[in-house]
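User: Here's a chain of 289 residues. Predict its fold as tokens.
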Amino acid sequence: MDSLQSQTVAQAIRAATELLGPRTDSARLDAELLMAHALDVSRSDLFLRRMADPAPPAFAALVARRAAHEPVAYIRGFQEFFGLPLRVTPDVLIPRGDSETLIEAALAARPAARRVLDCGTGSGALLLAALENLPEARGIGIDRSPAALAVAQDNARSLKLDARTQMLLADWDAPGWAANLGRFDLVLANPPYVEQDADLAPSVREHEPAGALFAGQDGLDPYRVLVPQLASLLAPGGVALVEIGATQADAVSAIGAAAGLESRRHRDLAERFRVIEFTISLGKPRASA
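Assistant: Prediction complete.
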């Protein structure tokens, strides 16, 4: 990479791909995204118009950051989710494509939802994707991190969804956190679900916020607290959708069943169970707010 500035864009992308290859299985894509970012163009414009241009001086520093395992989304400062460009910082988990399963299931379950709650909103990805596709709905995102809420609020403003959105500092571990929120047609949550000793890639373990990842020895601690509270948050006919780890469907469904909730499972594109859809069991007395 030392002679990068004398290379063309195409040559620099090839060199970066070789450098990043031992560190990531998406080396070529990462190099292309970083080059497009350095040139401030789209990836399609990069391929169509810029491959023979001189490589920009900024590219080498971006590649060096990626070689040190910093995620591409943090380097670029944004990540696309459900067609929306979202600002991301190390204060928030990077939205993953797997989480789009939750939005698809939510829109199918309650296409006329008017009130939406996102528990642990982070960047605001789930809430904002839902509101973008539910034009009559209003939503609340809660998070225990003020820094994450600032990112979510910024995303709501940039997407022109702030008039229908509230971002509130709250922690579902705290007694009475939901006392004044009311009830919702949709409750969304992507809790931390990684086991404390899980073997994670350095780009995740060293860079993404631990509080949004780790969930005790078996990865289930947040579900044990949040799932039993869902019934008190749901309006009549309301649905709660909770993202899970790939091996947690049975355990999370059982936590819901013990709380009087019926469950339905949704698979992601890799055919892994990724989302549990909860509704209040027929005949179960509704919990007080």
